[in-house]
Design goal:
alpha/beta; Hemocyanin, N-terminal domain; Rossmann fold; 4 domains; 14 strands; 46% helix; globular
Length: 539
Amino acid sequence: MSTLRHGLALVQDPTRNKGTAFTEAERDALGLRGLLPARVARIEEQVERVVGQLARKPNAIEKYIYLTALQDRNETLFYRVVVDRLEELMPILYTPTVGQACQEYGHIFRRPRGLYVTKRDQGRVADVLRNWPHRDVRVIVVTDGERILGLGDLGANGMGIPVGKLALYAACAGIHPAWCLPIMLDVGTENEELLRDPLYLGIQERRLRGEAYDALVDELVAGVREQFPDAILQLEDFGNANAFRLLERYKKEVRTFDDDIQGTASVALAGLYSALRLTGGRLRDQRVLFFGAGEAGIGIGELVATALVEEGLSEGEARARLWFFDSKGLVVRSRTDLSPHKRPFAHEYALVTEFALAVKALRPTAVIGVAGVGRAFTREVLESMSRHNERPIVFALSNPTSKAECTAEEAYTWSGGRAVFASGSPFDPVVFEGKRFVPGQGNNAYIFPGVGLGVIASRARLVTDEMFFAAAKALAAEAGEDDLAVGRVYPPLSSVRQVSLAIACAVAEIAYQRGIAVGQRPADLRAHVAGLMYEPTYG
């Protein structure tokens, strides 16, 4: 009887389960005889079965549910399928489908994944962290669910984001799943629908604010330092009011970064570097107008300013080339409503309250959309960009697809096929006047997994802005001439593991050069980093 229980427990453990791939010898030794069909299958055959079952699902959300269930029963097989079909499945596992999954999280929920730390756990957060079964945690992604993608406050439903991000850490950079911990900081929600929804799984109260909120976050960070001292703490989808100040508060104390601020900045800067290979000219000669001045926009602006300074400009000259447009209009010095993170980019200029008029007045060479306002790049905007630029740079980076500032087809059609386009969500190739364009996807999955791998490989004590600058240059270098020939400013997502390896090496080099790594630099750094990358195969 004990052997039978052992066998059932093994099949029900997703980290150890091989399903029908357990060998004859394993079935005898592990009490599995009779619990599985007779045929021993190779993992390739299991993958074929999964792909066939996926094809039968009627829509993206059903495919998401199926893949989540697979992850819950056989982790190795899940990652084998994802790694082999990353370009096809990333839109299912992350943007845009993860947005819908978060909106419906309480209704499609089956099994918990990760840790939920709530405002009711104040004073005992360390005890909650001790309940996690894996002690060698290297990457934690935490959110409080206040600003999920472009969808707003989804409260505890936002757990889908850390879960999805960490799946990408494993798939895109080979960070072992056992090293990954998703955390939902459930402090309530202001979402009226969720407050009324009987199936909502979070605390149905208004959000915790002020000193009590800060105390809970402090306790969480202290608990992470105590329980998981080697972990990176990635901040994800916090509201603007908290994101900037939490990053500033902790980034010099622990290995922490905010992907919405720094990861988005890095992937956007990489896209600009690649775009300039198509348009000609230098970064210092560009004028960039951002539609949106939140975490993503200001994060990109700060990193681009850093890049401009490296090209020889003063900080003032660099910021003079970067303009922002928010919900109230152009960010200018006469405004008295600007938050601290916007003020360094406020210029001496008349207030303009219509984006199309700002484009006409400023004549930017690039527009970057990060406000989560769908279709903000109208025909008028794109035609105006095309009148004063031979090759206008148009980055519609908001997620999910419904929030994109324009579609790929609109960008190419309204610019007469001259736009250098990238988006946050994936778009299909577009044929315009006989030429085929393949839009690049400015997906943070190009950046954060590789940065995390580099920090782990070097055991860096901090995650620095310089690392994201190095990551941007490494990513831009991976875009080949074949990619640029079809208008794609990023390499294909199918090559993201190689991209992550290149980024990880660049990040680790920064850590060793700046003296924040632990230990000596390996003689063959690339081999050292590659040796850490998880490959989903049965042992």
